[in-house]
Design goal:
Elements lengths: L3 E4 L3 H13 L3 E7 L6 H5 L2 E6 L10 H11 L3 E3 L9 H9 L3 E2 L4 H8 L1 H10 L15 H11 L3 E9 L2 E6 L5 H16 L4 E5 L5 E9 L5 E13 L2 E7 L6 H17 L4 E10 L2 E8 L6 H8 L3 H9 L16 E8 L1 E2 L5 E2 L6 E3 L6 E5 L14 E9 L2 H14 L1 E3 L5 H8 L2 H4 L5 H9 L25 E10 L2 E10 H4 L29 E3 L4 E6 L6 E2 L4 E7 L2 E6 L4 E6 L6 E2 L4 E5 L1
Parallel strand pairs: 1-2, 1-4, 2-3, 4-5
Antiparallel strand pairs: 6-7, 6-8, 9-10, 9-12, 10-11, 11-14, 12-13, 14-19, 15-16, 17-20, 18-19, 21-22, 23-30, 24-26, 24-29, 25-28, 26-27, 28-30
């Protein structure tokens, strides 16, 4: 077994791996950027090393520096977590060349499954169902039109090196194909430095279901049940659960068997996940994630094993600790991604300082986080604050437990998805096992208050964005005839004054964002950015006539592209941003009159 392992990641996943290493008696080495100098994961590591400035390209993606640090620290292995270098075959090869064990699959397996085109061909040959489409690169829009006509609309244009919803565009009709094709190529180049895309048939409203596998170097390969990840917006997962409410026992077994065939087809060793699109009793290969996933936690809760521990043991040359017949999932588990995003503003990122923080606890509750009060959620990294995971004996019990945990969770400072999750878990469609595609699409497409769900979670107030300023919750207690009575008063922050002690979980409501509502004193013709970020693309020119809703520019913040649209029809009189420019929240980018 290893004596010391470097974790090439940050935040909650770094702490998650450190905990397993500590239980195994293995020393942990952390690496951090200048922005993360005071982050909790840095303090948790047995030892930690600065590797560069804040931008990931200058720190967490500098694999040569990470390898030098591992050698300097005397580590024998490197765990990449997820994201950053986790699926980088060049990094895995460089680790081996430096005498370090890469805790993950072989570079060859990463390469094979990293290209969506090659992976589709491999899966087809292995007898794993694939979505109708092509397995060759589509290089021009003319070629794309020919392919689309052959497979039929709607079509999905996908980056060959893509993942996590990046480099993915849908064309419902021929008129939309060019925008989808160009958008997918642009995003693929930005995030993966690879413009290769391909086309496949788009399946409207399928379920997104994945199978967790484990394979060792002794020929053993098992699957550990499925996770349903269908609750998404912009192809980014929001909630995961196991088991899936729509997967039958027969379908589950067929998907598990196909996943083992898929792993064997590329001589896979380590933990990995096969992702599928499910429609009725049919399933189609989507991609393979050659790493531990964000949502691995729900499988751990249901199966009762530590997947990271299995990864470490496998990388050390040990066999799997369990056989297929020993895998007996029980109960039901949910995971909510607690992101620093505002669901009432098209899920815009909300980087800010966390001023108060308290995690829920109790039976069946797990929180994987990398923050505390005083932690700043930086705009240059992923907006995840934490993962909230619950388990109970069945789906309805687990749902109610999640509502209780969400009600206890305190995060003050940034807007988070906690109010959104409370609303979602109270929707009748979600309670019935639905994926809520239509509801989420509406929230993602326009700044909208969360609608009333018809259910108020465990006595809590339904979330609304109708107020014009933050609301502070104050708690009072009194005794009447010896009976203790609690009174909760919600009031605008400006009126709170000294009206009693503030409850730790003060609730902030927010107004619907309009691109024309910036700071006081700005002209009503001003188009402003709702978030801090970088201008990725400017889509208009000065003097151009625009309609209400036309996109002025695309601002990237926290790895997400956000469209800033005109709030009125008119002519662009002033355009004050250029591509690549950094902008602040509420900064004027154009004047439309």
């Amino acid at each position: 077994m290893f004596r010391k392992v470097l974790v090439a990641n940050r935040g909650e996943i770094a702490i998650r791996v450190f905990r397993t290493l500590r239980e195994l008696g293995i020393g942990s080495v952390g690496v951090y950027s200048e922005v993360d100098r005071d982050a909790p994961f840095v303090a948790y590591a047995d030892e930690a090393f600065l590797i560069g400035p804040g931008p990931a390209a200058e720190s967490y993606l500098k694999y040569e520096r990470i390898i030098e640090t591992a050698v300097r620290a005397g580590a024998q292995a490197v765990h990449p977590g997820y994201g950053f270098l986790a699926e980088n075959a060049t990094f895995a090869r460089a680790c081996a060349a430096a005498g370090l064990v890469f805790i993950g699959p072989s570079p060859e397996a990463i390469d094979a499954m990293g290209s969506k085109i090659q992976a589709r061909a491999l899966m087809d040959a292995a007898g794993v169902p694939i979505v109708p489409g092509v397995t060759d690169a589509v290089e021009t829009i003319a070629d794309a039109r020919v392919v689309a006509e052959a497979i039929g609309y709607p079509v999905a244009v996908k980056a060959a090196a893509g993942g996590g919803g990046k480099g993915f565009r849908v064309a419902l009709t021929a008129d939309e194909l060019e925008d989808a094709f160009e958008g997918a190529r642009r995003e693929a180049e930005k995030f993966f430095a690879d413009t290769v895309v391909y086309l496949e048939r788009y399946l409207p409203n399928p379920r997104h279901v994945e199978i967790q596998i484990l394979a060792d170097g002794h020929g053993n390969c098992i699957w550990l049940g499925e996770r349903d990840c269908s609750v998404q917006r912009r192809h980014q997962k929001l909630v995961e659960e196991t088991p899936s409410p729509v997967v039958s026992d027969g379908l589950r077994a067929r998907m598990g068997d196909a996943s083992v065939r898929a792993a064997r087809a590329v001589d896979y060793v380590s933990a990995g996940t096969l992702e599928y699109l499910v429609s009725g009793e049919e399933f189609f290969f989507l991609e393979m994630n050659t790493r531990i996933q964000v949502e691995h936690t729900v499988t751990e809760m249901a199966v009762g094993i530590d997947l990271v521990r299995e990864q470490v043991r496998i990388a050390a040359g040990e066999p799997l600790s369990l056989a297929q017949d020993a895998v007996q999932p029980r109960g039901h588990a949910f995971e909510c991604r607690i992101n620093a995003e505002d669901a009432t503003k098209r899920f815009l990122p909300s980087p800010a300082l966390i001023t108060a923080y308290r995690e829920p606890s109790g039976p069946g509750i797990r929180v994987d986080s990398g923050v505390r009060a005083g932690t700043r959620i930086a705009e240059i990294y992923d907006p995840m604050v934490a993962k909230l995971i619950v388990w109970d004996v069945d789906r309805e019990s687990a749902r109610r437990r999640m509502l209780r945990a969400l009600d206890e969770y305190v995060v003050e400072g940034p807007a988070t998805l906690i109010p959104f999750h409370k609303w979602l878990f109270g929707l009748d469609e979600f309670i019935a096992g639905g994926a809520c595609h239509d509801e989420l699409a509406r929230l993602a497409d326009a700044p909208t208050p969360l609608p009333e769900s018809g259910r108020t979670p465990l006595g809590g107030a339904a979330f609304s964005a109708a107020e014009t300023e933050p609301q502070i919750v104050r708690d009072f207690t009194a005794e009447v005839d010896g009976r203790r009575i609690g009174v909760r008063l919600s009031m605008p922050a400006s009126q709170a004054g000294g009206a009693g002690p503030a409850q730790a979980r003060s609730t902030k409501t927010r107004t619907k964002h309009s691109a024309g509502s910036g700071k006081p004193g700005q002209p009503t013709e001003a188009v402003t950015t709702p978030m801090q970020g970088t201008v990725l693309r400017v889509l208009v020119r000065q003097g151009q006539e625009v309609a209400e809703g036309d996109v002025i520019c695309i601002v990237e913040a926290m790895k997400m592209e956000n469209e800033v649209a005109a709030h009125r029809a008119g002519v662009v009189r002033t355009l004050s941003v250029t591509e690549g420019q950094s902008v602040d929240a509420d900064q004027v980018i154009a004047i439309v009159s």
